[in-house]
Amino acid sequence: MSTVGAPPGLHPLVQEFLQSQATVQGLSPNTLRASRGDLEQFLAYLRAQCSAATLETVQTRDVYGFCRWLGQERCPATVARKLSSLGSFFRYLQQTGVVEGNPVAGVPRPRVPEAFPQVPTEEDCRRLLGACATERERAVALLLLGCGLRRSELLGLNVGDVAADLSQITIQRGKGGKARAVLRPQTRPKEPFAPQHLPVTHA
Fold first, then answer.
1. Whole-prediction pTM value?
2. Which helix (DSSP H) or strand (DSSP E) does residue 168 occupy?
3. How do residues 144-157 score in pLDDT, each as one tens digit?
């Protein structure tokens, strides 16, 4: 794959799209960051390989060319994600009247092998908890292991998200910007799990 540099600035149409995704769809910063990277890479490809093409004139053949270009070094799951970002972007352009059709609509997604998540063993969990030096570190480990929190969800916790009796924790912005409630992890009798040990901030 040829090396393509980053664009000097964010394309206005991309900026409008990302703003819409943030305000209307409520997508998380991580999702928006990934979409921006995918779209910037597509623009870089157009400049390097399809100099006559613009976002308003992109054809399905250009998207196929981008897929072939990506496929030289990218796994199928990555190509599928980038196609999803492009599809959402051109669907937005179609809805706003910038383009007449979606050039990504007819492009098949690569087959992605089904992957099962790796679950830590009981011994893995025991070693992790045993390596915690403070009650705060142990509370962090218990939340990650017992509640299945993502790192961004853990870092985004506020003290108001924790029930007064510590029985439940509300994740305000989970995957896809959706809120959900999780039960606190079960701990041994008399094991400290007090509010001051939870990794939350006062918002």
1. 0.63
2. strand 168-171
3. 887 778 887 888 78
